[in-house]
Automatic annotation (TrEMBL):
Listed GO MF terms: aldehyde-lyase activity; metal ion binding
Keyword presence, Cell cycle: no
SUPFAM superfamilies linked: Phosphoenolpyruvate/pyruvate domain
One GO cellular component term: cytoplasm
Superkingdom of origin organism: Bacteria
Residue stretches making up the HpcH/HpaI aldolase/citrate lyase domain: 23-239
Key words of the record: Lyase, Metal-binding
Protein name as annotated: 2,4-dihydroxyhept-2-ene-1,7-dioic acid aldolase
Entry's family note: Belongs to the HpcH/HpaI aldolase family.
Amino acid sequence: MNKIRALWNAGKPAIIGWINIPSILAAEALAGCGYDGLLVDLQHGAAEMANVAPLLLAIEHGGAEPLARVAANNPADIMRLLDFGAYGIIAPMINTAADAQTFADALHYPPRGLRSFGPRRPQMRFGPDYLAAASDSIVSLAMIETRDGLDNLEAILAVQGYDGIFIGPSDLALALGRSPRPDNTDPILLAAIDNIIARCKAAGKHVGIYCSSPAYAHRMVAAGCDIVSITPDLVMLTNAARESVAATRAGLLR
Ligand code: 3PY
Ligand code: MG
């Protein structure tokens, strides 16, 4: 059972980490830090399709559910990531019901969808029963983060075959004429986020959001999200480095 789906079935939220630095060593180490899932970001992170398979393997080996955000809502990339052992897909910039249907179709084998058969790594985890287990083994979130996505939300939510919505607060802020700051508390953005969360709940879909800190993640879970990302790897690394340098310098000046 997918760890994130198991949490959802138990009515609990999932906490995921965000990988921009495509290091196998770091991915395995982070995967052992208690995250429910770890996501390789192929849209804004440095990983490429060519180096994603070892990262997914390292994450699974480390004990977290391996997830990926595709660079775009491209069925060929989504199907390859599933074959490489991603058990969760986030697709950016879902703007229309047709985009959502393209996403849903890429996730499932016929007759439910259009996924092509060649599950190289999932077959090792699930054996010959993978075909029956495939749809449930994957969690899938469509990103709402544009003006079109907001305007077409009702039709996007009516599409079946994907689990829910993941809110991209930076792009959403830009779409609303606000600043794309991390953990943004701009009232216009927060009202839009609350509205998306409420409409996801009404449609029976899961909903999550990208957060840069535990405090913002707490706030979003309290607002109704059931999957939140927390501080991305590059931010953690640079925060820790800054603190270390500053503490060393402060000690030298004493
Ligand atoms: C956004 O905030 O727009 C995102 O896509 C998060 O990475
Ligand atoms: Mg975005």
